[in-house]
């Protein structure tokens, strides 16, 4: 039977928990940080270590059969993949935040204001649904410093504890989406026996944690 490939984050917030989950499934592999692919010695599976942003497309295009990635990344890239299992880690929320001394008190006050984000697609959809017209400033990182620099009136960014917002003089203002790590697969692959076996192992690891 064809060896499966699962894509996980190479380094970052989801790496450690993704590796731990796969190891807890009884999969034996070397967690070499330097290599892109690690073969599993006791299951027909290879692990691909990638930037999280590339994972949804790799799965959609069939380069990987499965992937572990945050829902926020899937929604932003707007790819078509199957959600196979929520994984219970990497929990965070995408929030609009404003500076502590901002005079914005209502969602409608964002009309005509600028919002800096690395999530322009999700934010654009949220604003449209709420009939708000703001200028979306798409920047590639360090979004939380934008209001202080006068680059934007508000930001839309991932928040878990809120510590980063606080240390930049910002406060959460509106929830855009909540997210956690999920296992994704390709449409039409549902009957693959190896994929079913892996999903079952993952589910029993998650059940044991409850
Ligand atoms: P990469 O180098 O793979 O592109 P990255 O810098 O884009 O990594 P990380 O910061 O490692 O991404 O975050 C990976 C995922 O972890 C996020 O997409 C999100 O789903 C989740 N996450 C959980 N808590 C947070 C948080 N406080 N801030 C950002 N992401 C979080
Ligand atoms: Zn990324």
From TrEMBL:
Pathway: Amino-acid biosynthesis; L-histidine biosynthesis; L-histidine from 5-phospho-alpha-D-ribose 1-diphosphate: step 1/9
Domain spans labelled ATP phosphoribosyltransferase catalytic: 51-203
The keyword Cell cycle belongs to this UniProt entry's keyword annotation: no
GO cellular component: cytoplasm
Primary subcellular site in the record, as a coarse category: cytoplasm
EC code(s) of this entry: 2.4.2.17
Cofactor(s) required, per the database record: Mg(2+)
Molecular-function GO terms, alphabetical: ATP binding; ATP phosphoribosyltransferase activity; magnesium ion binding
BP-aspect Gene Ontology terms: L-histidine biosynthetic process
Catalytic reaction equation(s): 1-(5-phospho-beta-D-ribosyl)-ATP + diphosphate = 5-phospho-alpha-D-ribose 1-diphosphate + ATP
Subcellular location: Cytoplasm
Regulation: Feedback inhibited by histidine.
Record's keyword terms, sorted: Amino-acid biosynthesis, ATP-binding, Cytoplasm, Glycosyltransferase, Histidine biosynthesis, Magnesium, Metal-binding, Nucleotide-binding, Transferase
Membership in a protein family: Belongs to the ATP phosphoribosyltransferase family. Long subfamily.
Function noted in UniProt: Catalyzes the condensation of ATP and 5-phosphoribose 1-diphosphate to form N'-(5'-phosphoribosyl)-ATP (PR-ATP). Has a crucial role in the pathway because the rate of histidine biosynthesis seems to be controlled primarily by regulation of HisG enzymatic activity.
Name of the protein in question: ATP phosphoribosyltransferase
Organism from which the protein derives: Mucilaginibacter agri
Native organism taxonomy: Bacteria, Pseudomonadati, Bacteroidota, Sphingobacteriia, Sphingobacteriales
Gene this protein is translated from: hisG
Shown part of the complete sequence: 1 to 210 of 283
């Amino acid at each position: 039977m064809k060896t499966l490939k699962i894509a996980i984050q190479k380094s970052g917030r989801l790496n450690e928990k993704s590796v731990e989950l796969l190891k807890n499934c009884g999969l034996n592999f070397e967690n070499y940080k330097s290599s892109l692919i690690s073969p599993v010695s006791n299951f027909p599976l290879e692990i691909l270590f990638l930037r999280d942003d590339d994972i949804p497309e790799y799965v959609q295009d069939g380069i990987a059969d499965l992937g572990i990635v945050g829902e926020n990344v899937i929604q932003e890239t707007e790819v078509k993949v199957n959600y196979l299992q929520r994984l219970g880690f990497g929990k965070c929320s995408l929030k609009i935040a404003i500076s502590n001394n901002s005079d914005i008190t209502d969602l409608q006050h964002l009309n005509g204001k600028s919002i800096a984000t690395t999530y322009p697609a999700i934010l654009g959809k949220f604003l449209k649904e709420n009939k708000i017209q703001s200028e979306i400033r798409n920047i590639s990182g360090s979004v939380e410093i934008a209001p202080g620099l006068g680059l934007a009136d508000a930001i839309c960014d991932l928040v878990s504890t809120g510590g980063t917002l606080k240390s930049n003089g910002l406060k959460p203002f509106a929830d855009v989406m909540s997210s956690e790590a999920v296992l994704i697969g390709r449409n039409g692959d549902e009957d693959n026996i190896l994929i079913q076996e892996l999903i079952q192992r993952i589910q029993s690891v998650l059940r044991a944690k409850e």
